[in-house]
Amino acid sequence: EAQVTQNPRYLITVTGKKLTVTCSQNMNHEYMSWYRQDPGLGLRQIYYSMNVEVTDKGDVPEGYKVSRKEKRNFPLILESPSPNQTSLYFCASSSRSGRTYNSPLHFGNGTRLTVT
Amino acid sequence: AQSVTQLDSHVSVSEGTPVLLRCNYSSSYSPSLFWYVQHPNKGLQLLLKYTSAATLVKGINGFEAEFKKSETSFHLTKPSAHMSDAAEYFCVVSDRDTGKLIFGQGTTLQVKP
Fold it and tell me: CB distance from A39 to chain B under 8 Å?
């Protein structure tokens, strides 16, 4: 089954404790992206990757890191989480390449992160 | 710069009645537009997309949307709501230069029995 898998689904942590949210897709997609969803703000892009070893900042990259060493995996790293990073996070992938603009995104089921 | 505005944050309908979720966009050229649906505790799922072919686009689960350039709108409709349609809906525009997707703030659809 074609899917984007995120882990964990729920995570509660404390300020400053490094964490990683994993994302994996089995569709051989070039493009992958991370979003955060907050009430009243819709989805905002954190980072995206056009292909292996190619990553770029989205709209809200501060406090986050990503890596793309393999095509299928795109982990999101919070080196020193803070309470304002409490949110619902989504990983997504797409077959879009270059700047193609009409390929839809396939989303994971989300990771709900709470930082206390 | 492109943008998208969903005109209603909440819409409530009775089961069996029509659904209308409104979306306006701003773009300097003909955009690509999408509607996504998010059910509770799930990721977003593509409902339909417009990419400059037919202006009336049919999607999954009986939904459709009409692209109206003169009104810069892309409203989502369904003739008869079902309880399973209760979810959050996002209108999305794709920036043709960067491929970036710009999300609306979402509309929560409530369906009453």
Answer: no
